Amino acid sequence: MRKCPKCEKRLSPFYFGTECKHCGADILYYHFDERLEQDAAKAEVQEEKVQRLLGKLPFLRKKYKN
Amino acid sequence: MNPEGEKRYVGYGEALAYGFAAGGKAFVTTPTQSGYLSLFFTKVFGLPAGSVSFMMLLSGLWDAINDPLIGSLIDKTRTGYGKLRAWLIITPLPFAVLTVTLFGGPSFLGGVNSVGVKIAYMYVSYILWELCFTFADVPFNGMTTAVSPLARDRTRVISFSTFISGIVAGAAQTLLLSLMDASEKGIWNISLRTVFLLIGVISAVFGGGLFSLAGIFTKERIVQSARQPSIIEGFKVLIHNKPLVLIVLSNMLMSAGGLYNVFTTYYFAEVLKLNSLKLLIDIPGGAVGIGTYPFIPAIKRKFDNKQIMIIHFISKAAVGIVCFFAGFRHYTSKAVAVPVLMLLNIVISIVNTVKNIISTEMIGDAIDYMELETGERNEGVSFAVSSFFGKLTSSVSTSIATAVLPRIGLSYKTVGGQQVSVKGEKTDFYIWMFYVLIPQLVNALGVIPYFWYNLTGKRLESIRAQLALRREELLAELESAEE
Ligand SMILES: [Zn+2]
Description:
The structure holds two protein chains of two kinds.
Chain A: H1 32-56, H2 61-64
Chain B: H1 12-29, H2 34-44, H3 49-76, H4 85-90, H5 92-108, H6 115-146, H7 151-184, H8 192-217, H9 231-240, H10 242-254, H11 258-271, H12 277-292, H13 296-302, H14 305-326, H15 334-374, H16 379-407, E1 411-415, E2 418-422, H17 427-444, H18 457-482
Antiparallel strand pairs in B: 1-2
Helix pairs in contact in B: 1-7, 1-8, 3-6, 3-16, 5-6, 5-8, 6-15, 6-16, 7-8, 7-15, 10-15, 10-16, 11-16, 11-17, 12-15, 14-15, 14-17, 15-18
Bound molecules: zinc ion.
């Protein structure tokens, strides 16, 4: 579900405006840096999962062993 | 915790979603490639070849105006999803409908005999399809740079997309060819008309469905200027974007390699007289090409983009020369030609895999460079213009190649209702030369613009650092405007 990053109220996926209908926050850029950091954290979790998975493959074990 | 130097914003999930979306796009575009499309309109729809090629010519000319216009319209877009992603959310559904409309034409107009009505249907369905495709394709390509300010994120997204789309395109082609064969050889009691309707429906559902993953799962992570650049500004910026002009110029010189595709076909058809041998020769190249992907991060650490491009030009020219002389007196012998062509194919496949990723990435660098100069990003116009020139030069080189055929003594005459080829004394040799040697040498001309290309090393690093600062200021402005 799509939510406003500021007031967290529901937004329709087909609403294309730049500002939240409820609180007027900039949907895309509100606390942009913090949200980027959240993405980075999420990406890292996935990264570790994949590395662990690759480490289980015998022919790749050397390369990805930590 | 990864060190800062390894930071990423785009996780595997998002990169895979983008990759599968690229696969979806590849699936839909396979039957619209010029060869199949003209076969569809003439053989299946029953339209005269002349009106089909005239329509293709018109639509090519229309693209010259249309593509950059759509690009700048996309650059003006500002939504809560960003400027590109909004289009990726809107386009999949109409695109799917238009794909069924295009390939279902002969089925829907089953009872109609009027050629005029059919021609009108062809124009409307194809031009609308192309229009919608551009609105989907340009933002999709633009996403490779807007998805993240970090080069390593961009590299992965582009690699996943070329990897998956390569495999899907092969599958789509196999499906199309086997359905056509099954219909024509009576293996399956289905008309060609129905085959194409089926292809249209499968492309729409499977290809369109996969393509919609891009709009759902990818995100834009670069702050765009609040001001919307006007259309004229978009064009002006483009002319002043020197690195982009150099990349496009080089791509044009390279795509003179379009000769390669044409002469590949003629070599197998007319010299070896065994079309399916090409499939055999493609196998090792295809496998090695796929095997190249895991090494891309290592290659990128060792060389910068410009160096990689130069290595690509030299390797192709070198392998072209070696293979040309290796088969110099034996080009009609399968025992010599097969291993020599396999070698040619392997080398080309390795360097093309790397080159395709790098050249998309460099357009991203050129867009970054222009952002630093003007404060605005032009993903739309930049990708639209580069894809337009790509289409233009490949069609020009195909027609040049076709024009070369009679000059080297190859012609066709009808004997007993069948097309028979007539060859001169040295025709086979010239076909070998235009297949193995010339395209690789012409491709190497693409190196020339790179002598002036300077978005590398320290300069690129400093551009990226300055941009990061600039974008933070932009954000701070936005946040303070909000308080
Ligand atoms: Zn809100």
